[in-house]
Amino acid sequence: MEDPGPDELANQKGAGPICAIFGFPVFCIAGCCLLAWNEKKTACAPSAIFLAADVQQVGCADAERAPNGSLVYLNCSLKKEGLQPLGLPGTTDFAHVRHGGVGLRVRSEMLLCVEEENRRSTHKDTSGGSKAAIKSFNYTKQWRQEPIDSSTFSKLPAAQEEKRRVCGNSPNPTWPVNVPKSIEKWVESAKAGDFCISDRALVTQLSLNKTLTDIQVPKGWTKASGWYTSTTWAAPALQEGRQYQLGTVRVRFESNDWMSPDVTVLGKNHEGNISQWEVGPRSLCSGHKVGELRNGRISYEKLFWDMRHQLWSQIWIFRTSGFVVVWFAFALLLGPLEVAACCLPACMQKCFADQPEVLTCCASFLPALACTSLVTGIVWTTILPKVGVPLLIVFGCLILWGLIVAWRSVCKAYGARAKVKDDTDTEPLLPHE
Prior knowledge:
This protein is an alpha+beta fold. It folds into two domains: about 5-45 and about 315-425, no CATH class; about 85-255, no CATH class. The chain is built from nine helices and 18 strands. Strands 5, 6, 7, 10, 11, 12 and 13 form a seven-stranded antiparallel β-sheet that branches. A five-stranded mixed barrel has the order 2-8-9-15-14. A hairpin with a 2-residue loop joins strand 11 (about 220-225) and strand 12 (about 225-230). The longest helix has about 40 residues, at about 385-425. The chain starts with 5 loop residues before the first helix and ends in an 8-residue tail after the last helix. The relative contact order is 0.14. The model is unreliable at about 1-15 (pLDDT under 50).
């Protein structure tokens, strides 16, 4: 392998400061924004959990006795009474559908030809002997909820031959007007016991886990395994015995299960109407809403345990991601500064002497941790000072420790350099003859 020439080395050295100047502020700001947003969510989202002692556990018939404005928890059964039938808009073959449920999900799919592009680098006989990207295309038939325009597929002879082998000569058809597209329809409110769940944001949390099989089969359609299928718009079969061809469509309908109508509700009560509970006018948390509607009867303890588990899993994923972005930003900043590696222990410098990028990564860990502590401390101090102030103290300690280590390392480096200079300037005294 040839050694890089002087011009290439100069370009590599010049690229470091450019990345530091432009990359550091971009990644540092992005990481800090992610951390601030996540810490705000950390402080605001568990409001219902922190206020669990104030949650009122009420019965299904306590709509008139439940305290107004309070966060209430109840296990009740959904009621069909008062629900408006849900149907499909337009003039499709399923325009006659009218279902009495809290929600109606339509899953509509068409069998289409899908193109996948593959790239690989290979040597070609070019003047420079460099690598060039070679394209290849694979084709499969897949069920898709949106149409795919096959006129945009590759026109290369090999790709066209592969497409004809897998998908046939027919292009992907357009979406028929007689076939409904995938959609979800919800009622505006639902009854659970004597309470009315009037917040649409709560209603749409209900799981639609029941496949509907009692819908009248339109002309030209068949029903099997919960799917309504039609080959009216399908391309001609390439071989006898193939069941589905391009353009075959299928539709599935799902709703809530009335055989298991029990639900668990957590929300704010106002005269028997349940809506999302909104955090009061606190700094950074004003307007944050909390509410749960889940299928089945879930115990009070398990509901809040699930909320904590789901919340903290997401929090630590975003918190770690923000720290990594900030760490990368400081690595870009300290990369061109060779003196940064002098702040590390001598054993580490000796082990990774031929890997400066490892030394830079290690040296940037401390400032990244300090920056993370500063951002999280500021956010938490505004909301909950007893958490934020210790984080700011940690930030101060990290900065003080970093300055001490950096000062000692710099002094040691300059002392060693001065000693070498003194030894060079000193001349030995020769005896007189």
